[in-house]
Amino acid sequence: MAEEIKKQEEVLEMNNPQEEEGEPYSCLEEYFVDCCRYNDLEEAKDCIQQGCDITWFDNRLNNAIHMACANGHVQALMLIKEELDKWENQEEKKQKFINHKNCDQNTALHWAAINGQKEVIVYMLEALKADPNICNSLKKTPFDEAVVFNQKECAEILAKVTKEDMSIYEGLEDYANNEEVKKEETMSDS
C-alpha cells in the first residue's frame, strides 16, 4: 500500500513540474497583470512593447488596474495611463476599462478603498476619471467599502467627490469606541 501511494506521488510530481518552478503564465497579458500587481515597471513596459493587450482580465475578471490599485502602485497606473492616452477618440472604451468590474462587481477603485490606498484613489479620480459611484454586488460604492474597512482617510477623499455624509463614518467610529469602553468596564468588573 505504501509503495502504491509513493508511485502515485511520483506520477503527480512528473505531471506537475511547474509546482517546483512556479506556474508558467498562460499568456503575455497574464504576466502583464502580475507585473502591475508587483509594480515591476520594466517588465510591464516590455510586455507593452511586445504588443500585450492591457485590457486583459483573469478568470476572476481582475485586470491590471485592479492589481495596481489593490497594492498601491501609482507608477503602474501611470504606465497604463500612458497607453490609454494613445487611444484617441475612444473615451467610452477607456472608461469601460478603468471602471471594469470583477466577478464580485468591484472596480479597481473599490479595491483601492478597501486596501487604504489613498494616493491611488486620488490618481484614479483625478488622472483616470474613475467613477466613484459604481456599486458592487453588495450594493456598496468605494466610499461605503472604505467605511466598512475603517479606511477613514480614503472615505474622506471619496466623500469630497461623491458628496457622501462623513457622519456615517463618525457614527461607526463612536459605536466602535462605545463597544471598547463596554468591554473594558466588563473586564474591570470581573
UniProtKB/TrEMBL annotation:
Keyword Cytoplasm: no
Skewed-composition ranges (Basic and acidic residues): 1-10
Start and stop residues of the ANK repeats: 104-137
InterPro entries on file: Ankyrin_rpt (IPR002110), Ankyrin_rpt-contain_sf (IPR036770)
Pfam annotation, one family: Ank_2
Tree of life domain: Eukaryota
Annotated stretches, region: Disordered: 1-21
Annotated keywords: ANK repeat, Repeat
PANTHER family listed in its UniProt record: ANKYRIN REPEAT AND PROTEIN KINASE DOMAIN-CONTAINING PROTEIN (PTHR24198), ANKYRIN REPEAT-CONTAINING PROTEIN-RELATED (PTHR24198:SF165)
Name assigned to this protein: Ankyrin domain protein
Organism, as annotated: Tetrahymena thermophila (strain SB210)
Species lineage: Eukaryota, Sar, Alveolata, Ciliophora, Intramacronucleata
